[in-house]
């Protein structure tokens, strides 16, 4: 199955509104004050980059720093600095890679598991407050649609990577 080309049709009004809503929610969720409030509620003194890395580590098996960088879409040097910070604070540790004993993987410590649990709990409490007027059915629909959208975004991103790797399409 070949990747689909970029659409040439103009975006629908619905797609434009979804993009606007995602831009707004991204802005709201990445504001420094919102992060500081969340960290205060969770009792975890970490910056946004460290929290993003901690979340990624918590959501996967132990990974090499380069794999973490790829998953987060950042340079490996950024991950190295964050891993060092998280090690100093006792949230992560390096373990031997079972596939290559020369390499190391990063995993959460018990303190890291507790910290990410508190961060997620504080985030969920805020979300519960914001969505308290929504019915259970609306929440189920939103959750399902969000997961579907993320899956489609990931598929589309993978299609673009494959398309770029294949090179330009030639008309014969």
From TrEMBL:
Domain HTH marR-type intervals: 15-151
Family annotation (PROSITE patterns): HTH_MARR_2 (PS50995)
A Pfam family per the record: MarR
Domain of life where this protein originates: Bacteria
InterPro entries according to UniProt: HTH_MarR-typ (IPR000835), MarR/SlyA-like (IPR039422), WH-like_DNA-bd_sf (IPR036388), WH_DNA-bd_sf (IPR036390)
SUPFAM superfamilies: Winged helix' DNA-binding domain
PANTHER family given in the database record: MARR-FAMILY TRANSCRIPTIONAL REGULATOR, TRANSCRIPTIONAL REGULATOR, MARR FAMILY
Name of the molecule in the record: MarR family transcriptional regulator
Organism in which the protein naturally occurs: Streptomyces gottesmaniae
């Amino acid at each position: 199955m070949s990747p689909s080309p970029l659409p040439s049709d103009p975006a629908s009004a619905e797609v434009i509104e979804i993009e606007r809503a995602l831009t707004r929610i991204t802005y709201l969720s990445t504001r420094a004050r919102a992060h500081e409030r969340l960290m205060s509620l969770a009792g975890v003194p970490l910056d946004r980059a460290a929290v993003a890395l901690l979340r990624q580590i918590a959501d996967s098996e132990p990974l090499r720093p380069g794999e973490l960088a790829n998953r987060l879409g950042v340079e490996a040097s950024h991950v190295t600095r964050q891993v060092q910070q998280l090690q100093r604070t006792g949230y992560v540790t390096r373990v031997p890679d079972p596939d290559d004993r020369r390499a190391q993987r990063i995993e959460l410590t018990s303190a890291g598991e507790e910290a990410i649990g508190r961060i997620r709990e504080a985030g969920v409490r805020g979300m519960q407050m914001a969505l308290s007027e929504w019915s259970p059915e609306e929440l189920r629909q939103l959750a399902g649609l969000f997961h579907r959208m993320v899956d489609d975004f990931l598929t589309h991103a993978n299609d673009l990577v494959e398309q770029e790797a294949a090179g330009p399409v030639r008309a014969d």
